[in-house]
């Protein structure tokens, strides 16, 4: 099936679709720098850059010309995410309404909508109690079988726990698209990055150009050096996050090392910050001058978060901008996750 990718970002979600029966031929993304990365990986896909509202007619026209029968859409989630501010007046909130308009005009066989778990149960207008899921059913329920489930990427060959709302639309004249069964085995952090060379703050490895540690401040390095695997520095008896000798306030998910023997926590756009959530390397215990310390007192490298998202060594974006790469990985749908969902059509 010829496919349309909306809110495509840099196309990480589509990385393994060449192994499915969906061929993305058209994409839309707002931001230029993300479009450039997308075009690098998918040079044969026609990219329409710009605001989806302003490009709507172009998207509809080209989709019809190209014979689009499948749509994948990942609308911006910031106004619905627990990690965001959940502002209903956010201008991104009603973007799903444009998606409804596109579906009505193209009448595709199948549609995939991915978002944060609360997406379908969220309100979209200040003085309207109707939920997004109810709106989809009202507008499209006569034409489509609509199935929504909350799935976790760790159940689909991804070494990362990432819960997402996955809604599958099947035109009633087609075979119903159902969510895939969980894969029993899980892939752990140790399985994925345990073989990589250890790095301390500011160090660089030759194993991969993106396996280089960010430079952190001395206090952060000290606090994390005393923090065991899977723990937060807030639980340290002495070397805890402090200012002028007083423990600073913070969540127990911050200044925190991840576990070795579980999938990683959700990778966010703030993956380079020790003071953000669940971003510090698991570390390995060692003894020095009678003290128990832990190495790798740093955030995960770009290479490590690539692997924990399920990307391979061939994923090499045409940029040297570390923040951009951390951003697009942090907001990406893991590609093996999408592969298993689409393979199930």
Question: What distinguishing features does this structure have?
Answer:
alpha/beta; 345 residues; two-stranded antiparallel ribbon; 19% strand
Number of helical regions: 9
Low-confidence stretches: 80-86
Distance between the termini: 11 Å
- Assign a percent range to the helix content: 10-25%
Q: How many extended strands?
A: 13
What does this molecule look like?
With 345 residues, the chain is an alpha/beta fold. The protein has helices at 32-41, 56-66, 95-106, 132-140, 189-193, 218-225, 302-309, 322-330, 335-343; strands at residues 2-6, 23-29, 46-49, 68-73, 110-115, 123-125, 128-131, 144-152, 163-171, 242-243, 246-247, 285-288, 291-294. The strands form 4 sheets. A 7-stranded mixed beta sheet has the order 3-2-1-4-5-9-8. Helix 1 links the parallel strand 2 and strand 3 (46-49). Helix 7 packs parallel to helix 8 (322-330). It is elongated. Mean pLDDT is 94; it is low at 80-86.
């Amino acid at each position: 099936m010829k496919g349309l990718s909306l809110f495509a970002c840099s196309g990480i979600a589509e990385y393994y679709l060449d192994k499915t029966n969906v061929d993305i031929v058209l994409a839309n993304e707002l931001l230029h720098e993300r479009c450039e990365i997308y075009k690098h990986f998918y040079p044969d896909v026609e990219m329409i850059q710009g605001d989806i509202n302003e490009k709507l007619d172009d998207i509809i026209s080209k989709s019809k010309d190209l014979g689009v029968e499948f749509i994948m859409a990942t609308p911006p989630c910031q106004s619905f995410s627990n990690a965001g501010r959940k502002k209903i007046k956010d201008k991104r909130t009603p973007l799903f309404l444009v998606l409804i308009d596109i579906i009505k005009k193209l009448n595709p066989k199948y549609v995939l909508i991915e978002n944060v778990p609360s997406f379908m149960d969220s309100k979209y207008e200040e003085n309207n109690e109707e939920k997004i899921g109810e709106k989809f059913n009202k507008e499209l329920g006569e034409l489509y079988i609509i199935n929504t489930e909350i799935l976790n990427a760790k159940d689909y060959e991804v070494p990362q726990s990432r819960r997402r709302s996955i809604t599958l639309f099947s035109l009633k004249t087609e075979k119903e698209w159902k969510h895939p069964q969980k894969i029993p085995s899980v892939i752990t952090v140790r399985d994925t990055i345990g073989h990589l060379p250890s790095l301390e703050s500011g160090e660089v490895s030759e194993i991969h150009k993106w396996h280089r540690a960010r430079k952190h401040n001395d206090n952060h390095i000290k606090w994390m050096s005393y923090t065991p695997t899977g723990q937060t520095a807030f639980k340290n008896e002495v070397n805890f996050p402090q200012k002028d000798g007083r423990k600073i306030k913070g969540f127990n998910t911050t200044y925190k090392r991840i576990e070795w023997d579980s999938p990683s926590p959700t990778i966010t756009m703030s993956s380079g910050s020790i003071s953000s959530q669940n971003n510090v390397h698991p570390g390995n215990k060692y003894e020095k001058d009678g003290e128990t310390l832990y190495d790798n007192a740093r955030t995960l490298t770009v290479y490590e978060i690539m692997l924990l998202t399920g990307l391979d060594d061939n994923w090499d974006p045409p940029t040297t901008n570390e923040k951009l790469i951390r951003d697009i990985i942090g907001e990406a749908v893991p590609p093996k996750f999408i592969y298993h969902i689409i393979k199930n059509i």
